[in-house]
């Protein structure tokens, strides 16, 4: 039978050693379909939105940024966009920034598409596709999560159900870190 | 012979008929036309050759010029899907895809080929970019359960041809390679 001193010693050890383990686990575990990347400085995003306003990713430092590439002709993009709008409605107030980048389409196409699928998000226009190329997406749609220090930390594989608890909780955990 | 049916029997036969016809309809729709597929426990590859009209309708909708579409109409256009069903990395590299028919190898048009073509034709960067995004990636490390797709372009041939493709597997590409073969593929006109 373990003595009371032994028990106290064991519990103390458990507490002492569990602190660093807990600290390590502070990094959120990426859900299915989200790749944890070896962090690297984010490529440039300096674009105009559909209203002619400038956006520069550099100016979002200090916040997590949801960087998303899409095109209206891409079926999975159409499917995913309402989930992004819904996620954005929930997390915008919690500090998430978003860069919704259209790849190589004209203003009319973007306007018509977002009017239906994501009316509350301003779209950035990568008119000649050069910014998109620099990010080297696996395909379209493509989503990256950029950390407050400006490093690309996560990449989504294809379209994701961003407004489901799994992804919302993951994003919220990230936002707590900023 | 006149058969008298009560309400219950009529209901029973009606439900039966609905099931019968929906099954026939499903069967008819479930058989894809001109689609080719390889599927096993590890990977699924689907090929869907497009008619020039299908291809043109898509790119016309994106505002491509007549000149660009006429050039594309001359080629064999195949929409391709890849699904890595394994829990390890599947390394896709188009240089390991070979198309052959009775006349020998069919040389795939590469991204560089199209880049040169569009440059010669002075096609806008936006349309060049859109076109590139509709092509199957040259290389990709397919993660567990990842699907990606895109188009492959070949010189048009009226002869059936065969695709053989090889994929490396595992984190360091040292896993058991996967080889697939799809025969009797035909371009559409």
How is this structure best described in words?
The complex is a heterodimer of chains A (178) and B (189). Chain A is an alpha+beta fold and 178 residues long. Chain A has a single domain, classed as Glutaredoxin (3-Layer(aba) Sandwich), CATH 3.40.30. Helices cover 38% and strands 24% of the residues of chain A. Chain A contains five helices and eight strands. Chain A has an eight-stranded mixed sheet with strand order 1-8-7-4-5-6-2-3. In chain A, α2 links the parallel β4 and β5. The N and C termini of chain A lie far apart (48 Å). Chain B is of the alpha+beta class. Chain B has one domain: Immunoglobulin-like, CATH 2.60.40. Helices cover 32% and strands 34% of the residues of chain B. In chain B, α2 runs antiparallel to α3. The radius of gyration of chain B is 22 Å and the shape is globular. About 11% of the residues of chain B have low confidence. The interface between A and B is medium-sized, with 19 and 22 residues.
